Amino acid sequence: MTTIATNLQGIPEHIAPEQVFHFDIYEPIEGEDDYQSWFRKLQDHGAPDIFWTASNGGHWVVMRGEDFDYFLKTPELYSSRINVVPRERILPIVSKPIQLDPPDHTRYRNLLAPAFSPKAVVPLGEKARALTIDLIESFQIRGECEFVSEFARRLPIGIFMGMVGLPEKDHEHLLGLVDEMIRPTKVDNMDAGNRLMEYAFGKLNERRANPGEDLLSVLTREQVDGKPLEDADLVGMFFLLLLGGLDTVAAMLSFITRFLATHPQERQVLVDHLERIPAAAEELMRRFPISTLVRVVTRDHEYKGIQFREGDLVLMQTSAHSVDDRLFDQPLAVDFDRKVVFHGTFGSGAHRCIGSMLARIEVRVFLEEWLKRIPDFRLKPEQNLRVEPGMVLAIPCLDIEWDVC
Fold first, then answer.
1. Alpha carbon 60 to its chain's center
2. What is the distance between the alpha carbons of residues 390 and 181, in angstroms, rounded to a whole number?
3. Which one of 51, 60, 289, 370 is at 20 to 30 Å from 311 when CA atoms are compared?
C-alpha cells in the first residue's frame, strides 16, 4: 500500500524526490493485522510526516496528529471545497456544510445542529437500544452471525432512516449506492453518486408536496440569511446525511467487534464491569477510526519546509492521527484506563463531526446490550482481515460465533 516511490515521472517540480512515496487509498488490503496499525508501522519505518503520492491524480498524505490538527483548523490555507481524491470524484452538487469553509459553513451547520443536540440524541439513543436488542435476539440462539450485514449496517441505518423519514424498503438500494460512492470499485465511475442525487431530488420533491416532521421536511422550511434554501442546497445537505448516516458507525462497529472477538481479556473486563463501557467505547473509537479527510490548498506557501502550491490536495486519515506515538503513549494498545484525551476520530476544527454524539451513543448501547447477551464470542476459523479502504474504511464481512447454552 505504501512504499518509497522509484518512478518519479510526472511528479510536480515543487516536490522533492525524498518526499515521494507510493500510497493508494483505494487499494484493498488483506492480512492478519488491523488496518490502523499499519500507519504506525509506516511511521516507525521512516515515512515522512507529510509525503506526496502520485496515485489518484497526485496528493499529499499527512501522517502525524500535529499536522492533521493544523490543516483542519486553517481553512484559509486548506479549504474543504474539494474533499475527495481524485478531484474528479467531486459531484456537481455541493454537500453543505461539509464542502464549505467558515463563516458559510457555520450558517449551514447551524441548520443541522438541533437534530444532533443532546435533547434530540437522547430519544434516538432509546430507539438505538430497542433496535439493538431486537437485532441481537433475532440471531442469538443460532450461535453465529455475519456481523456486518446482520447487525452493524442495520443499527445505524434503522436510526437514520427514521430521522429523515425514508422507507425501510429503500435500505438495501441506498446502502449499495453509498458503498460504491465511498469505496468505489471503479474510481472513475460516478454512476452511484449521480443515482444518489436523483434519489435525493425525488425525496425533496415529495417533502415539498407533502411535508412532515422528519429532518428533511424541517430543512425545507429553513432559511439562511433570510432566504429559503434552494433545491441544490437541500440536496447537498441530504446527500451528506446519507453518506454519514448509512456508513460510518457501521464501519466503526465492525472494527470494534473484531477487536473484542480476538481479545478475550479486554472483552472480559467489560463483561465484568459494564460501568466501564463509556470510557472503553471512547478508547475503542480512538483506536479504530475509519474516516479520511481531504483539503485543497488555497494559495502557494511553505509549511515545515514543504512547498505547497495552490490546488494541491492534502489527504488526512484519522487512522494516522490515532496511532501517533507523539500524541499517545503506546498508541496501538487498547487501554481502558487511558485518560480522556482529544483524538481525531471525528475530525477537528469547525468541521468536527456533527453526529459524533449520536455515534458515541450507538457504540455504547451496542457494547452494553451485546455483552449482556453474548459475552463470549470469537471469529470463525481461518478468517483473515480484509479491509476495503476508501473515504471510509470498511470490513465487508465478519463471521463470528459463540456457544449456545
1. 20
2. 9
3. 289
